[in-house]
Amino acid sequence: MGDLTVVVVNNQGGGIFNHLAVAKETKRFEQLWGTPQAADLGKLCAAHGVRHDLAETWTALARQLERRGKGVRVIEFRTDREADAAWRLKSFRS
Description:
Layout: E1 4-10, H1 22-25, H2 29-34, H3 41-47, E2 51-55, H4 58-66, E3 72-78, H5 81-92
Parallel strand pairs: 1-3, 2-3
């Protein structure tokens, strides 16, 4: 069996939709587009025998990625959906 590291950006919902015009125009954006969820990725990984590591900062993520693992592992990178959207808008603006 090979080695695989999966990085999951966990912003508790559909953060990509924050870039749509509807994000500013509807009172029901969170319910219909944000699709907030509270799944516990650590428990999901444990249920399937997959190693789970948590990173809450860019530095912690970099450290986790530097470590080589055997088999399958998931690195959960927790972020804030609104802050992510603002960062992407600022970073990729032409």
